[in-house]
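Support request from a user on the community tier.

User writes: "When I paste my structure tokens into the form, the page sometimes reloads and wipes my input. The last time it worked, I copied everything first. Here is what I submitted, just in case something in the input itself triggers the reload:"
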């Protein structure tokens, strides 16, 4: 695999949405837009009862935002648009009328942790360590913060946001409530995801929809909140501190 993609496969009424990018499944703006649209369309597809969000490759679920795009931001408006990419995906996941199962096969960083936190039921392997590295480059996990805080609490979110150099283990993420199960291998994870998703398809879709509304109660302001957070990051990325830090990634 070398070319980036977002694809949807429907198997036994389960919609498997998969994204891939050769740079450790980092997500540039065009791929985030495709992912948001694919989730929206799948939510409306009557052939699908449950969704699975997954990525290609074996050891990295998502490396977060694209540093190549980040380095080239030169004004606040462009910065806000850039950081709104993950905001848009989180919001369509929040509004999707179907349960979304997360399949996290490996390490995930920054925005990737936000995607995992925005699923309704998240399953992982023991290799799925998480990290919020944003402070390292002079910004912060502002856009993904609400989704992560919703799952692991303000204390857990602040811990990994401040300790921006450390990968926290999959077991830690499970203890905090981000992951529901942690498996020994991707093969075992895939079998568990398939079994769980297909079993959910036997449930009343109306009941699942109503449960999803309950799970996401109190987030109706997130369209505005995440846009405001994207603007904060868009401003901070222009700082001299961040510009100097990003030079090391060229």
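"...and here is what came back when it finally went through:"
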């Amino acid at each position: 695999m070398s070319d980036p993609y977002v694809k949807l496969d429907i198997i036994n009424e389960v919609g498997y949405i998969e994204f891939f990018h050769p740079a450790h499944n980092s997500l540039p703006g065009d791929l985030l837009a495709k992912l948001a649209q694919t989730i929206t369309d799948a939510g409306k597809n009557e052939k699908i009862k449950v969704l699975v969000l997954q990525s290609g490759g074996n050891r990295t679920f998502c490396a977060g935002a694209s540093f190549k795009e980040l380095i080239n931001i030169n004004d606040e408006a462009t910065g806000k648009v850039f950081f709104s990419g993950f905001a848009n995906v989180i919001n369509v996941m929040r509004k999707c009328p179907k349960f979304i199962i997360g399949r996290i096969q490996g390490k995930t960083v920054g925005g990737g942790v936000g995607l995992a936190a925005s699923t309704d039921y998240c399953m992982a392997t023991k290799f799925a360590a998480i990290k919020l590295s944003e402070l390292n480059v002079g910004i912060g996990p502002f856009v993904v913060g609400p989704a992560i805080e919703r799952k692991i609490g303000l204390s857990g979110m602040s811990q990994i946001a401040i300790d921006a150099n450390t990968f926290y283990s999959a077991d830690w993420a499970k203890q905090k409530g981000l992951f529901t199960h942690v498996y020994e291998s991707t093969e075992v994870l895939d079998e568990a995801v398939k079994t769980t998703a297909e079993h959910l398809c036997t449930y009343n879709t109306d009941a699942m929809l109503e449960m999803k509304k309950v799970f996401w109660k109190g987030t109706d302001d997130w369209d505005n909140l995440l846009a405001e957070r994207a603007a904060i990051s868009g401003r901070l990325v222009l700082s001299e501190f961040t510009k100097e830090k990003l030079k090391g990634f060229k």
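Agent notes: The reload is a front-end session timeout and is unrelated to the input. The radius of gyration is 17 Å. The chain has one domain: 5-200. Escalated to web team.
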